[in-house]
Amino acid sequence: MKRFYIWIAVLFITGLWVTGNSPSAGNAGTMDLITKLVGTLGITEEQAEGGVGALFNNAKENLSTEDFTKAADAVPGVDKYMAEAPSTDSDEGAGGLLKSGLSSLGGGVSKMGDMAGLAGAFSKLGMNTDTMTKFIPVVVDYMDSEAGSGVAGLLKGLWQ
Fold first, then answer.
1. Which position among 32, 54, 127, 130 has the lowest Cβ density within 10 Å, counted as fewest Cβ atoms?
2. Exposure b/e, 28-59, CB count within 10 A at least 16 = b
3. pLDDT, tens only, 70-92
4. CB-based contact 139:55 (threshold 8 Å)
5. Distance (Å, rounded) from C-alpha 139 to C-alpha 137?
6. Could you give the CA distance from residue 20 to residue 12 in angstroms, rounded to a whole number?
7. Gap between the Cα atoms of 143 and 151, Å rounded
């Protein structure tokens, strides 16, 4: 009788494995990224999710629809993170004025404005610019493995 129960358990686990119905299969890729960010940087899960959302909001604003779709498709649940991320377009205070002024100048100066906006979003999440500069390479490396070097290169060009 004991063998029967073991056999049933093995069949059940094999069935889950074959069909991909593991408990975390839906967000496995994102959780790997979030877990890596938390473990590498010593930040909270909420900070990691908010930072990913802020970065992808920035990517959506600055990439073509096709390129953004390629990037977003590699991060399951990215829409949720983007919706919950602090705004990078804050017009509050000197930071908002600096960002809007730099963005209006175009080119590399515009990129500085975007980075100022990202720094503001990370600040709202309780992270400083040092953490942001460590955060970005982790996301770019993840994108390289999940979406390929072309997409990772586009994002690296935006954020570094």
1. 130
2. ebbeebbeebbeebebeeebbbbbbbbbbbbb
3. 999 999 889 999 999 998 764 44
4. yes
5. 5
6. 12
7. 7
Q: What's the number of CA atoms in the CB half-sphere (13 Å) around residue 156? A: 14
Distance CA 126, CA 132 (A): 11
Predicted confidence (pLDDT) per residue in 85-130, tens digit: 998 764 444 444 444 444 444 444 455 657 889 999 999 999 999 9
What span, in angstroms and rounded, lies between the C-alpha atoms of 63 and 123? 24
AA identity, residue 130: D
Q: Which among 143, 120, 151, 127 has a CA at the least distance from the CA of 48?
A: 127
Whole-model pTM: value is 0.70
Contact partners, residue 6, CB within 8 Å, separation at least 6: none
Q: pLDDT tens digits for 12-32?
A: 565 544 444 444 444 455 578
